[in-house]
Design goal:
It is a single chain. The chain has 187 residues and is mainly β. It has a single domain, classed as Sandwich (Jelly Rolls). It has 2 helices and 15 strands. A hairpin with an 8-residue loop joins strand 2 and strand 3. It is globular and about 45 Å long. Bound molecules: D-sorbitol-6-phosphate and zinc ion. The site of zinc ion (ZN) has 5 residues, from loops.
């Protein structure tokens, strides 16, 4: 099979689209006052969209697609994905197609890494590392992804513990700071 990606918009025709608005991921942001203020003012912005080709979750199959993160902030925290662990021991590849972002990685041993991503960046996410992407620019941040179809997604751990670091704007620049609300995973 073959499909076409529009590198400017990130859209892949004919595949499943998932839209995540602020209300779908309110708990994942650090500044709950800003979340509530935005939602009260009837601002429930689209934070990101996922265009994905999924195959049956059989050994050997791959899922692939694009993620498009809009520019913006909730309080001082940049728009980002929820972030997840793969339930199965599975790696993933991301390739930057447009804009600028930061990929946050952490594992259950308490190790943390961050990787800047732009157009052409090719990044490998090893198994057992949770991953979250953040748009640090003022345009769309778009990347391509591919991962095993039987990986599964664990969002619950990140919802409960948070990420070790936050990406916020400080003095008009993106800055990675400690997340004082981070609670290490008990597993
Ligand atoms: C799936 C892969 C991406 C993310 C997407 C959105 O394993 O890592 O397709 O699903 O970038 O992130 P999230 O955390 O909402 O799934
Ligand atoms: Zn993933």
């Amino acid at each position: 099979m073959q499909v076409k990606i529009d590198f400017n918009t990130g859209i892949i025709e004919g595949c499943r689209v998932t839209i995540r608005r602020l209300s779908d991921m309110a708990e994942f942001y650090s500044d709950q006052v800003s979340v509530n203020n935005m939602l009260k003012k009837n601002r429930d912005p689209c934070i990101y969209e996922i265009y994905e080709y999924s195959n049956p979750a059989d050994e050997g199959n791959l899922n692939f697609g694009t993620t498009i993160i809009y520019p913006g902030k909730v309080g001082s925290e940049f728009y980002m994905t929820k972030g997840h662990y793969h339930q199965k021991n599975a790696g993933e590849v991301y390739q930057g197609l447009r804009g600028n972002g930061i990929l946050l990685l952490q594992n259950r041993k308490g190790e943390f890494r961050s990787i800047e991503m732009g157009k052409g960046s090719l990044v490998y996410i090893p198994p057992e590392w949770a991953h979250r992407s953040v748009n640090i620019g003022d345009e769309l941040f778009i990347y391509y992804f591919v991962y095993p179809s039987n990986s599964g997604h664990d969002y619950e751990t990140i919802r409960r513990t948070g990420f070790m670091k936050l990406v916020v704007e400080k003095n008009s620049k993106p800055c990675i700071i400690d997340n004082i609300k981070y609670t290490p995973s008990e597993s």
